[in-house]
Design brief:
The protein is built from six helices and seven strands; from the N terminus they run ααβαβαββαβαββ. With 193 residues, it is an alpha/beta fold. Strand 4, helix 5 and strand 5 form a beta-alpha-beta unit. The longest helix has 15 residues. It starts with 7 loop residues before the first helix and ends with a strand. The model has no long low-confidence stretch (mean pLDDT 88).
């Protein structure tokens, strides 16, 4: 298995070439709504937003949503979908959540921070989680969707995409509330400080 890291140099050509990833299903959107509730204008941050699908769901729930990604073509894809199908919607920012200064974000703290199909790619998962905690408002929720190892058939070429049990333990350590829900090969986590 080849190790891939979370770098713009890897992801930008994929997005620029038209590659798209697993869509947010209605079951996943319902789980999100059940776990985070109505936004009432509170700020939400979607890390690794890609084409912005999850950010748009948060916006529809009433959150004032910012979607960030470090791949310019991903941000362009998110902007094009918003413009053609959703009128006003989330704001989009080109940003590397790991490397860039968090003070450049539009809000100092977020009621909801989301990360969909991105956590697995983080080289330094504890550092990533520490940065999430820095921007998560007191009483906020970190919503993460990730694939779990061992959920695909051995013959499936994508079987390596899941996080290990140790990585899942790192993810859930140090939160006062950990709620999970399963969707086929995915697990959704609602984590609260």
């Amino acid at each position: 298995m080849t190790t891939v890291t979370a770098t713009a140099n890897y992801w930008e050509p994929l997005w620029a070439g038209g590659r798209r990833y697993r869509e947010v299903s209605s079951a996943e959107a319902t789980l999100l709504a059940d776990h985070v509730g109505l936004g009432r204008g509170r700020p939400a941050l979607d890390i690794g937003t890609g084409d912005g699908a999850l950010a748009r769901h948060l916006h529809q729930l009433g959150y004032r949503t910012t979607g960030i990604d470090f791949a310019p073509s991903a941000i362009a894809a998110a902007q094009s979908i918003r413009t053609t199908r959703h009128g006003d919607g989330p704001t989009w920012r080109l940003m590397d959540f790991i490397a860039d200064d968090l003070i450049t974000l539009p809000d100092p703290a977020y009621a909801i921070v989301t990360c969909r199909l991105v956590y697995r790619w983080m080289d330094d998962k504890p550092a990533f989680l520490n940065r999430v905690r820095q921007v998560l408002a007191p009483g906020g929720t970190f919503w993460i969707v990730t694939e779990l190892a061992g959920r695909r058939e051995d013959s499936d070429p994508l079987r390596h995409l899941g996080i290990t049990a140790a990585e899942a333990e790192t993810l859930t350590a140090g939160w006062s509330v950990v709620r999970t829900a399963d969707l086929d090969v995915l697990r959704c986590y609602a984590l609260c400080p």
